[in-house]
Amino acid sequence: MPDPVRTAAVRAVLIVALTLIQAMVAFLATLAESWLAFPMVLSSVASTIAATWAVLDVWVTRQVWNQRHGVVSAPGSTARERRRERRRERRAARRAAKAGVRIPDPSGGAPATAPGGARKPRTTGTAPGGDATPEATVKGSGSGARPAGRDRAGSAPATVKTPERERELTHSS
């Protein structure tokens, strides 16, 4: 059985080519003030509608073919796989947090150093009173925690004025 997309494409190309020839003949007949000009213009309009229909038929046939035969579109980048990986990590971290297990440090316990080579103190994530520090809230240990004042999408709510939001509000007029 022939490929229906290719068949529709060949048919569309022929119809479009004939329509262009017909439009050119109608234009030349009009310049020559021939009696054939008016019927050619009418048939050119009809042919243009048919050519548009033929091109749309190719597009629809291609879409149906892809859907029925399981043509899979791959993402242009690895962004989707990275998101899946981050989601897996967050789920694992949540499961570990629920189980009360401490998540191992990805750096292997190596001490954190400042750009000048001096060692930075490690943050425990709690203040002396036992309350969570802002650093713990921001870092979140990969458990899906978001910075304070942010919603699920990661954007600041309308009540919190970020510098971008303030700039947008002052320059909106």
UniProtKB/TrEMBL annotation:
Skewed-composition ranges (Basic and acidic residues): 162-173
Biased composition (Low complexity): 104-137
Keyword 4Fe-4S: no
Keyword set includes Transmembrane: yes
Record keywords, A-Z: Membrane, Transmembrane, Transmembrane helix
Residue spans of biased composition, Basic residues class: 81-97
Region (Disordered): 72-173
Regions that span the bilayer: 12-32, 38-60
Top-level lineage group: Bacteria
Name of the protein this chain belongs to: Integral membrane protein
Provenance organism: Streptomyces wadayamensis
